[in-house]
Structure formats: structure tokens, C-alpha cells
Amino acid sequence: MSTKIHQLVDGNGRPLVVALSPGQAGDSPMLQPLLAHLAVHRLGPGRPRTRPDALLGDKAYSSRAIRTLLRAKRVKAVIPQPSDQIAHRKRRGSAGGRPPAFDSTIYKGRNVIERSFNDHKQWRGLATRYDKLAAVYRGGVVLRAITIWLRE
User: Fold this and answer.
1) In a 10 Å sphere around its CB, with 0-12 CB exposed, 13-18 middle and 19+ buried, how is residue 39 labelled?
2) In the prediction, which pLDDT does 149 show?
3) Which domain holds residue 103?
4) Average pLDDT, the chain
5) pTM for the full predicted model
6) pLDDT(86) > 70
7) How far apart are CA 29 and CA 66, in angstroms?
8) Residue 81's closest CA among 64, 59, 109?
9) 3-class secondary structure for the chain?
10) Is the pLDDT of residue 132 over 80?
11) What does the alpha-carbon distance between residue 69 and residue 59 come to, in Å, rounded to a whole number?
12) Which of 15, 21, 66, 105 has fewest C-beta within 10 Å?
């Protein structure tokens, strides 16, 4: 009945990877496929860049599995902890471990992804979801991503 758009964007809000999922699905399971498809080609020779410097996410992405995945890829995780995770860690005392590192000044740049979603929703066809097939809807999302890149 509904569709969710997932994307990775650069620091200027330009989409790098776009994926769709059912509307009732969660956001965090889509992070691994998005990171697997990330490949930014270089202007000169060399392999495409597949590892971002940092990943800014909201509290939905604060899980041990995601932090382990990012640590294995050597990506800095700038994800705040939800209050229930903080309370659980404190309740365990010294066995709860240290809180994960969080840079609040870098996190202030997370609004770029929200603004990118707002750019997508400016297209009436994407905002109202008239397309019946997910492939056609994804085509519209990719076309909007191309127009965002062409503005630069």
C-alpha cells in the first residue's frame, strides 16, 4: 500500500544510492544494502570510492549490529543513542560499557538528508505515489535524483 524511499546522500544533499522498500518495513535493515551499492567514481584513474568518511543517522540506526558494521568498514558513526539504550547501559553499571562516541557538531549536518527528501517530495508524482508498480515509482525517484545532480 505504501513505499518508503531510502537513500545515501553526499554533503550537498545529492543522492548517491536510492532504494525502495515496503512502507511498513524498518529503516535500519536497509542500511547494509545501501552501503553495499555505494560507489563514487573518481574523476581520474582509480577504483571508485566505496567508504564514506562518516555516516550521520537518526536514533533508528542506533543498534549494536549497525555500529559493528560501520566499525568493520572503518566508517565513523555519528548516531545518537535513544534514551532506552542509555538507561539500559546505565542499569547494567560498569558491565554496560562506555557510551559510543558521538560528535554533536557533525550531527548538526544531518538535516541535509531531510532536505534531500523534501526535494524529492516536490515532484507531485513522488509525493502522491500515483504509480502502481514499484519499478515505475523507483524510476521517478531516480529521475528526480538525476535532476538534482544536474542542478550543480
Assistant:
1) exposed
2) 92
3) 3-151
4) 90
5) 0.84
6) yes
7) 9
8) 59
9) CCEEEEEEECCCCCEEEEEEEECCCCCHHHHHHHHHCCCECCCCCCCCECCCCEEECCHHHCCHHHHHHHHHCCCEEECCCCHHHHHHHHHCHHHHCCCCCCCHHHHHHHHHHHHHHHHHHCCHHHHHCCCCCHHHHHHHHHHHHHHHHHHC
10) yes
11) 16
12) 105
Pairing of strands 15-22, 3-9: antiparallel
Report, as an integer, the average pLDDT of 20-47: 91
How many domains does the chain divide into?
A: 1
Q: What is the pLDDT of residue 54?
A: 93
pLDDT at position 133, please? 87
CB within 8 Å of 8: residues ≥ 6 apart? 15, 16, 17, 34, 35, 38, 52
